[in-house]
Write a structure and sequence with these properties.
Oligomer: single chain
Number of helices: 4
Number of domains: 2
Helix content: 25-40%
Structural class: alpha+beta
Distance between the termini: 49 Å
Radius of gyration: 20 Å
Strand order of the largest sheet: 1-2-3-7-6-5-4
């Protein structure tokens, strides 16, 4: 019987993962399952292909709860990664359940996947190397070969959507 090194490696990782999980921070008793650790938002929650790319980022850590709360005009819930999109995306919603969101996508500007929209919209000065207001889909910003889209939707603050998007984009640009 021939067993590949890859098979042994995967089996060893699975065994180690099970052993660590069994030792982890729960108060398990004989016959009961250990208490899982608190959920965290990490790049491990994305598909392996996205996590392996050099431009993959955990977008949910690029804005703080206070920054999103300020944009929404009310307390924000935790960011939820949206792994079904071409580029890493995170969405925050008000804890109250009111209609409103802050959405952030980060990835390469050009290519497939890429953040650059098919229709650029209105040019916006003073943000990144170039930026475009696409109205009801947000602000698209390029910095070097990287891009981001930030969209503030239906919020209860006195600031305009575009002003809020520019403020959040400036924060995220410091990370890329």
């Amino acid at each position: 019987m021939v067993v590949s090194v890859r098979t042994i490696g995967l089996a060893a990782v699975a065994a180690l993962t099970a052993a660590v999980a069994g030792c982890g921070g729960g108060s398990a008793t004989a016959g009961s399952a250990p208490t899982p650790p608190a959920a965290t938002t990490t790049s491990a929650s994305r598909p392996a292909a996205a996590a392996a790319t050099p431009t993959a980022r955990d977008t949910c850590t690029m804005l703080t709860a206070d920054q999103v709360t300020s944009a929404l005009g009310e307390p924000a819930g935790p960011g939820k990664p949206e792994p079904d999109f071409d580029t890493p995306e995170c969405e925050w919603q008000p804890l109250s359940g009111h209609n409103g969101t802050v959405t952030l996508d980060v990835g390469p500007w050009e290519g497939d996947p890429g953040v650059k929209p098919l229709k650029l919209g209105t040019a916006v000065a003073g943000v990144g190397d170039e930026a475009y207001d696409a109205g009801n889909t947000g602000l698209y910003v390029r910095k070097g070969s990287n891009g981001l889209r930030v969209w503030v939707f239906n919020v209860s603050t006195q600031s305009s959507r575009l002003d809020l998007e520019k403020q959040l984009a400036a924060i995220v640009l410091a990370h890329i």
